[in-house]
Amino acid sequence: MRVVARRLTLEEDGIPGYVAHPEGGGPRPGVMMVHHAHGVTADYKIDAYRLATLGFNVLVPSLFNMFGVPGTSHIGQGADLQAKHSDSEFLVKMDEAWHYLVERLKSDPARTACLGHCMGGRLLIPFAADHPQVRAIVLYYPSVRDEPETSHRPRHAFALARTLRCASLVFCAGKDYIATPAIQGPLWQSFIANGLLLRRQSRLPSSRQRRLPAPLRRSRVAARDELPGAHGLDCPGSTPLVMGAIESRSGTRWGEEKESAPRGRRPGPPPPAPARTARAPDAP
Known about the structure:
Layout (H helix, E strand, L loop, with lengths): L2 E6 L1 H4 L3 E6 L5 E7 L7 H12 L3 E5 L1 H4 L11 H7 L2 H18 L2 E11 L1 H12 L5 E5 L16 H4 L6 E7 L7 H12 L13 H6 L2 H4 L4 E6 L11 H9 L37
Parallel strand pairs: 3-4, 3-5, 5-6, 6-7, 7-8
Antiparallel strand pairs: 1-2, 2-4
């Protein structure tokens, strides 16, 4: 499968960022990737290309560029930019990107999901609450804190996660210094409280799973992967889990063209992602 991948600019494309998609026409499943506090760094382009080879239209909007901040990456600027712009402002930009993914790139809205890291993972929780058409969210170490609701961050993830109606997959780090294990627990409880069913994926050994409370052992829409490491952990081999979450609300495998599989046979699972270098620690 040939993939088209390129940088997007506000002047030429109407939205800044990066896009990757299979060559050719026709509606396809889509993924909107919402970046971490460092902006659209090189690893996002690698991940976008990898998902495009599986049959997805992938859009990585540069939220900071959309606010008028120049540059192709913003390492070290994330904390100041989040302090300057409220969650509501970020969500407006994410909504613009969603419409670009569905309307300009002709992604099938019934088969389109979102993926985010750190800041992006945190923002995708209110975004999914406001956009029931989002079919799945995949969150890598979302930077949720135990903090009061304010006009700058008016809706906390603890309250919102229980309202989501989409498939959800959350990767957590045992040594995360932002979303600490003490925060991960209430967040997880809020996700499973939405009551939707899905096969649960976990890397916990079976002996540890048996010691979990019964609600955490049942199949739920919110699958949490507890991984060793700190904030910004690497997740080699997570692609099959991600694909499983994105495909969970559809009767077909979203990343596969229907005609590509021989009749009577289901396409096999996507190949695992190769190991990559760990992401730099994100700003809060």
